[in-house]
User: Fold these one by one.
Assistant:
Number 1:
Amino acid sequence: MLLTVLLLLPGCRCNESPGVAVRQTLPHYAEFDGLVAASWRGKVDLARTAGRDLTEGAPTEWEGGQDAAAKVGAALGFLQMAESTDEVADAVAAASLGCGKCHMAAGVGSPAPPPPWTHEHAAEHVVYGLVWTAPLGPPPGGEPPLDALAQAWNEPVVLDSASQVDERSIRAGRVIATCAECHQKR
Ligand code: HEC
Ligand code: HEC
């Protein structure tokens, strides 16, 4: 907590207590994990509802983070019009990228270690990489379905200069979409 307060100081209006800013920022996007689960399970309607509810939890009080919060908001807005599991996956990855931009700018680190790069945790792993700007490489491959995830990850990425996303978030979106191909039917 002390570290968080120190990190907040450069942006503070110094006649205010920095502790107030911390309380205003947390919790934010509290149900994001539920959205991630809906995305890899291929539950499009559930993901849309989760995205709508999340927009109300944005950390608006963080000075200097408006641009990143707007990126998250735009991705959640896109999500509400998503009709396919691919679109949901892309929206979740784009939102995660926005989270990461603010955390990076604010110098905030994750409170937890990354989930492992395994079949069951791969979606959470790639999202973690974006939300916390953590190292993110291809899955280990090997036995199914990790081979399918590795194949999705390794397809070349073509970005145009106007793109709002980066290569990592495109690959992360593909991994989540690949989970949904199998899990939507379950
Ligand atoms: C506008 C800035 C901003 C955006 C956007 C943002 N965060 Fe944060 N987040 C912070 C700050 C600042 C902290 C550090 C704690 C604090 O000061 O409230 C934090 C901390 C956290 C924590 C750690 C909480 C804890 O228990 O220590 C989680 C989890 C988190 N954010 C999730 C997310 C997710 C998921 C998203 C995107 C959907 C997101 N955040 C988007 C600013 C942001
Ligand atoms: C090629 C098909 C396939 C792909 C791709 C796939 N899975 Fe699975 N998954 C399965 C099968 C089959 C099972 C075991 C049977 C069951 O429990 O439904 C399973 C079980 C699971 C389980 C434990 C049971 C449950 O439903 O909670 C989790 C968690 C899981 N997968 C997560 C993922 C995630 C996350 C991804 C993407 C990163 C993914 N899977 C990609 C086929 C797949």
Note: Residues 44 and 85 are 6 Å apart (CA to CA).
Number 2:
Amino acid sequence: MQDQTVQTNFSLAQLADPAMAASEKILRTCVHCGFCTATCPTYLLLGDELDSPRGRIYLIKDMLEGGKPASPEVVRHVDRCLSCLSCMTTCPSGVHYMHLVDHARAHIEKTYPRPAGDRLLRAVLAMVLPYPARFRLALRAAKLGQPFKGLVARLPQVGNRLAAMLDLAPAAMPAPNRTNRPGTFPPQGGRAAKRVALLRGCAQSVLRPDFNEAAIRLLNRHGVEVVHAQEGCCGALTHHMGKEHSSHAHAKQAIDAWDAEIARGLDAILVTASGCGTTIKDYGFMFRDDPAYAEKAARVSALAKDVTEFAATLPLMAPVVESDLVVAYHSACSMQHGQGIRTEPKALLTRAGFTVKEVPEGHICCGSAGTYNILQPEIAEKLRARKVGNIERIRPDVIATGNIGCATQIGKGTAIPIVHTVELLDWATGGPKPAALEAVRPRLAAAE
Ligand code: SF4
Ligand code: SF4
């Protein structure tokens, strides 16, 4: 097997750079078998080897090894990658594609002069999305702009992407609630068996604050004290755009905030958005060579858990709502491929009394992927249509997922209500019915 691996020719000087050394190691694990192509969404849609993991690996190798600035060809194919990490699940050789493509994106950001419109759009996204107050304002503006979507779409260079942005603005925006602020939420009964920090999140806290509200109620009901620390965005959004400076600044703020809580005693750092969870679990790698942050970052990553991973360790109450609702569980790519969490959410929902159905082609991305549905709207739209078709085929009453990006992306393509897994667990164990389920009231009435 060894002699079939990708041969690399990095100079010693290049390998003195730790990021390059890490990528070279990854490149050498690839045996170019091509198994990953079968589960890569962009290869499935576009049929071009350069839009497959193996093709991208070769493009990235050539770019890094040659010490070259990124070329338009490399940028085109790397930009089309969703970072869904389906290829990592499929790869028999353990190629860490995530770290490789992260390095490639950072290299592109440093060396490729994008066209002005593209650069501006990316700068605006990086300046708006991670900041809830700015994001809320932007959504209001997008709502006003929706009637002009046709005109906007005709603008040169970025028209289709601006139109996609307008499309994603929700019809109604929930009011900010307690989950948007730092604070402590004590357990019911007063005595805390466990103490956890819960990521407030940026975009999610604006679009669906009910997700964290349900998580807090569920945890408090089961004897867990929940803390919202002083962190902001976890850095995932700008990390996937290759904007290392911005993503590291966000991540450091989060690490410092959680480190202070770790000193006060913390059993876990919980995340209700699996896209964020994947990045937080990777902080240890991101800061491995930073003397001031390496240790702290590794501590934070070791404590990071998806909320369903943690809930699976709790003796959850027996359901108090008898429900015959059929739930299509949509496993986000960051959940199944990024974090390897596959069974816990479905087992929890089943234990809570729901009938859980697998979504056909469940390993294929819905097209959300952070800012991908804005930056690559045509591919994202095709993936959404494919995902929605697969979900509707199993005729569920409700869709459950663990990632805000997927909830927004899929929710734009179907009338079936979509909720977070913890909203159903909260409801089943004594919390309020999720607001999104009002639409299925007749069935629920029958179930209750
Ligand atoms: S499956 Fe793994 S080893 Fe095979 S080509 Fe893809 S990345 Fe390389
Ligand atoms: S991350 Fe997803 S889109 Fe990118 S190469 Fe891997 S499978 Fe394909």
Note: Residues 116-168 form one domain.
